[in-house]
Amino acid sequence: MRTPPVALTVAGSDSGGGAGIQADLATFAALGVHGASAVTAVTVQDTRGVHAIHPVPSDVVVQQVAVVVSDLAPRATKTGMLGDAATASALAILAADGLLPRLVVDPVLVSTSGHALATHDVLAVMRDDLLPHAAVITPNTDEAAALLGCSPAASLRDQTDQARRLLELGCAAAVVTGGVDAGARLDVLATPTDVQVMAGPGIDTRNDHGTGCTFAAAVAAGLAHGLTVDRAVTAARAFVRAALTESVQWRLGRGRGPVSH
Ligand code: PLP
């Protein structure tokens, strides 16, 4: 008898299967973790963009989390698209009650195609009430700027500064992804004791839809396996790089295709 590690994703559904819940579950499966899910919103979406969003009522999100937590005891949790402030608040209360262990918060605000995935009031609730319970947060440089109320990072120094300042919001670690410098892709991980710059060559692909979700889910999978945040982030970067490389040649849909899993 063996109990596989379990991770819970709380996120939006992407009908195109590239991002959100679908990317998270595919990532969990690829990394040997049983994935449970609480759906926060149903998006009508394909590779070309988000066509409509239908939020799930916050009490229904809470019910999904509650039954999964009591029955399957996830070792790690990941939040992605929360949709509205009521859901963000409800999750913050669950986190404060200790029901969202090893919490990875991916502060999803806007899709790469430019569609708002959260109402304007989600940002403050996420920043003030949810982030203080996070083991790690995974904003890209734009999301980091939104959380900090500053302008987007123009250099590695800005990105490093963002990662450090995000710790002041109360999360245990912050990894700011998506910096670019001389063709290299840069992610910066800040913990209270250390700041690490992780660099790799850029991967030129149109198939990058769902990259952020995949990265955060891979971090949660690592935490579910018992890795430290540091190791989970390193492993997640390698996973995402392999997924992007794998899907470079894909033709899937008419827009930005998904990363492979
Ligand atoms: N749709 C859903 C449900 C998501 O959760 C996300 C990202 O987190 C996206 C779309 C956006 O993905 P991308 O920015 O890679 O297009």
TrEMBL record:
Keywords from the named record: Kinase, Thiamine biosynthesis, Transferase
Family annotation (Gene3D superfamilies): 3.40.1190.20
Key word Kinase present: yes
MF-aspect GO terms: hydroxymethylpyrimidine kinase activity; phosphomethylpyrimidine kinase activity
Domain Pyridoxamine kinase/Phosphomethylpyrimidine kinase residues, every copy: 14-259
InterPro entries: HMP/HMP-P_kinase_dom (IPR004399), PM/HMP-P_kinase-1 (IPR013749), Ribokinase-like (IPR029056)
Domain of life: Bacteria
Pathway: Cofactor biosynthesis; thiamine diphosphate biosynthesis; 4-amino-2-methyl-5-diphosphomethylpyrimidine from 5-amino-1-(5-phospho-D-ribosyl)imidazole: step 3/3
Keyword Nucleotidyltransferase belongs to the record: no
General function of this protein: Catalyzes the phosphorylation of hydroxymethylpyrimidine phosphate (HMP-P) to HMP-PP, and of HMP to HMP-P.
UniProt cross-references to NCBIfam families, sorted A to Z: HMP-P_kinase (TIGR00097)
Protein known as: Bifunctional hydroxymethylpyrimidine kinase/phosphomethylpyrimidine kinase
UniProt organism field: Terrabacter terrigena
